[in-house]
Every structure is written in structure tokens, then in C-alpha cells.
What does this fold into?
Amino acid sequence: MAKIKRFTSKDGGYHGELGFYCPGCDCVHFIYDKESNAPSMPVWGFNGNFESPTVTPSVLVQNKTMRCHSFITDGNIQFLPDCTHDLAGKTIELEDID
Ligand SMILES: [Zn+2]
It folds into this structure.
């Protein structure tokens, strides 16, 4: 099973973005890599392994009320201490996404 997924137009995606389920926020976060078609967006490095993804650099999602900052390495998500949710400072295995 895959822990990260490329969302195409079939899946409701727009730019071939990569999505993973974040258990801290209880939602899917999206990033872009060099295979995504989103020229004006930041591009992350992705090891191409959907079962055991590594993404660099860190992923930061924030708005006025929340902040979620993580590293994804070998299929695990490491939440940095500056997250506003309960999993701040913890590292856990990513859940499958389909
Ligand atoms: Zn999150």
C-alpha cells in the first residue's frame, strides 16, 4: 500500500500533486515535486518510493489558527515541536492513502 499518492485529474487532483494523510491535522496535505505540473509552486524532492516516501525539505502547513511542520523520511512522519496539534514532537509511521 502507498503512503503517498500522486493525484491526477482522475482523483480530483489539479497538478499531479503528491498527497499524504496527516494524522496530526486529520486531513491530506499536498506538495509538489518535479513531476507535478505546477510551475509557480515550490518543488520538493521525493525519492519516488510511494510505499516508503522520503520528502525534502520539511513540509510546513500553516494558517492563522494552526501550524503543522514535519519531515517525511522512509515512510515516517516526524512532527516538529512547533506544530500546534497534539502530535508535536512525535514521529509515527504514515498511514496508507488510496
Ligand atoms: Zn498536518
